Known about the structure:
about 200 residues; mainly beta; Lipocalin; eight-stranded antiparallel β-barrel; 10 strands; globular; signal; Lipocalin/cytosolic fatty-acid binding domain-containing protein; Calycin
Amino acid sequence: xxxxxxxxxxxxxxxxxxxxxxxxxxxxxxxxxxxxxxxxxxxxxxxxxxxxxxxxxxxxxxxxxxxxxxxxxxxxxxxxxxxxxxxxxxxxxxxxxxxxxxxxxxxxxxxxxxxxxxxxxxxxxxxxxxxxxxxxxxxxxxxxxxxxxxxxxxxxxxxxxxxxxxxxxxxxxxxxxxxxxxxxxxxxxxxxxxxxxxx
Length: 199
């Protein structure tokens, strides 16, 4: 009797805890890293998107120079939430367009870098998985869970800390992670951000 009661007690927490890594089936999410993602990040490779204002949903002409700015009042090493700005330059209006967002871990008790990405103006939330980063030194790879492009492709965004893009070593690592997650690099669009104006 005691052994069966003990078995039930040990089983209950396992059943009640959902593994957030299952929110992005078919991908290998990154475990949280002890560093900060704060700063400006430039989109250098992404799924083609052409809906709405320049930024995460529109990286096609007249939009260019898209990316993110992340900040937080919390201190490293493990930052569970950020305030963010999605930006993109509209060449017809000759201005940067901005979208305010909140980014927070889906579950702070789990090791996965999977976030709720909330648009502050519309209130819509998308689950976003970080597939890899080199401790936020030069790049981050984001995957929008359960979201597809108009062509049926997964939404993937690779951002770089430098407007000059990635060194060959970082690019090789990005390519390997994309391949490991069954993401065809040939279906992503590369962006040159070297001439982009500062935000």
